[in-house]
Amino acid sequence: MEQAKIMTEEDVKRTYLRFAHQFLEPYDDPTEPVVIGMQTRGVYMGKRIIKIIEEKLDTSPDFGVLDVTFYRDDYRTKLKMPEVKITDIPVDLYNRDVILVDDVLFTGRTVRAAMDALMAYGRPRSIKFCCMIDRGHRELPVIADYVGMTVPTHAKEEVQVKVKELDGEDAVYLIESPEVNNE
To answer: Structure pTM?
Structure first.
């Protein structure tokens, strides 16, 4: 399995800083958006962005965690039992602007599942999507509003976003893999 580092720790940090500014740019009230990190790496990414907003911009938008396992259109067809993680959305989403955060945008099915899941918590005014990497291969008409990097990939390639909290480093790798994973 060959791999190439496509984003260094410095690239990732710079991207988090850019996201922090982009998230608040359209608002007069910086507490207006609700940032929702999608399990698993999107949660850590979202927390990092919130931390930057708190430290550099002296404000703190609401933050939540979303697991979309039971909203996926393929969870019943997979052979193994799905691993369910927590969902914790401590605020009412009714008429709020939500920013979903995830690591990789691929087919668009996970984002669709996330939008379905959010509707169970209220009707947001808007939903925006943020990802570190957009790798193409869309199966649904989904586009990211905030993108760290667009990386055209081959079906046999995989993009891995690493976060220090789970992986011991902040980086993004492009990996050539013999298996195809359609998430």
So the answer is: 0.91
